[in-house]
Amino acid sequence: MKRDTLKSPSPSKMRLGLYGGSFDPIHNGHLRFAALSAHFFSLSRVVFVPDALSPHTYKTISLPYPHRVKMVEKAVEGIPLFGLHRYQDPSAPSYTKDLLEEYRRTIPEASLFFLLGSDAFLKVLTWKEGLELPRRVRFLVALRPGGREDLLRAFVEERVHLPLFTVESLEGAKALEEESREGVILFRHPSMVRLSSSQIREMAERRTPLHGLVPDGVRRYIEEKRLYTSEVES
User: Fold this and answer.
1) Are 140 and 114 in contact (CB under 8 A)?
2) DSSP 3-state assignment of 172?
3) Contact residues for 160 (Cβ-Cβ < 8 A; gap 6+)
4) By the 8 A CB rule, do 122 and 152 touch?
5) 122 and 165 Cβ atoms separated by less than 8 Å
6) Which sign does the torsion angle of CA 118, 120, 124, 130 carry?
7) Helical H segments across the chain, by residue range
8) How far apart are CA 95 and CA 116, in angstroms?
């Protein structure tokens, strides 16, 4: 595995967020969730982890790994809070379990948080050792557009057998951290951007301008490579 050098505070003080997803493409909603998570939960850094050959997402991903990594690279460029994890062999299956173990080995003193969307979390029981992962690190879940909190709560409590805590304020985040209770966090905030990658793909296919929806570097890359159209460049 390869990742950008961590330049944040010393490992003994580090609270590190790993944000997994296909990022097909990455958009401002992803960045806002990451930034708010860092602020509310005192994360030293948030590292974006684009899925490589994920056993659970490869059928739904539109673009090859290099394109998606390049877009994340452009999105986080110049933002010290954010980093990018690159898999050395994206043709090999990628498992969240292995990712977390890698970071545990290399930064053993860090407190790990795993960020993801609610659609991905609802598949956690199909992951390798998926039932145990939310017990090993803190999961921060963002409700995707159109997602239902009642279904997510039922899944967490009845299938994962953990409580679901809803955090909407700094006070709520602080209180939960002080209690150190095991469970999954549904994190939501009025300033979160309600946007999905599928919306961006549809707009790009129609050549609809993406200003304000994705970082400018990502927008230019999509336009230059004609991504999500029949004329996409390799």
Assistant:
1) yes
2) helix
3) 124, 125, 131, 134, 184
4) yes
5) no
6) negative
7) 28-40, 65-76, 96-106, 118-121, 133-136, 149-155, 170-179, 197-205, 216-225
8) 14
Domain boundaries, the chain: 2-225
Can you tell me the distance from the alpha carbon of 5 to that of 197, in angstroms, rounded to the nearest whole number?
27
C-alpha 217: how far from chain center: 19
Amino acid at residue number 131: L
* DSSP per residue, 188-229: --TTS----HHHHHHHHHTT---TTTS-HHHHHHHHHHTTTS
SS3 233: coil
Look at residue 55 in the predicted model and tell me its pLDDT: 59
Q: Is the dihedral of CA 166, 152, 111, 69 positive or negative?
A: negative
Task: Give me 192's structure tokens.
Answer: 């979160």
Determine contact, residues 49/22, Cβ cutoff 8 Å: no
**Cα torsion through 168, 133, 31, 35, rounded to 10:** 50
pTM for the model stands at 0.91
| CATH H superfamily, domain 2-225 | HUPs (3.40.50.620)
CA-CA distance, 183 to 100, in Å (whole number)? 17
Instruction: List strands edge to edge, sheet with 45-50.
Output: 2-3, 82-86, 45-50, 15-21, 111-117, 138-142, 184-187, 164-167
d(CA 135, CA 182): 7
Looking at residue 34, its pLDDT comes to 97
Q: Running along the chain, 234 residues long, what does each successive block of 10 average in pLDDT?
A: 44 83 96 96 97 66 92 98 94 92 95 96 96 96 90 98 95 88 92 92 96 97 96 78
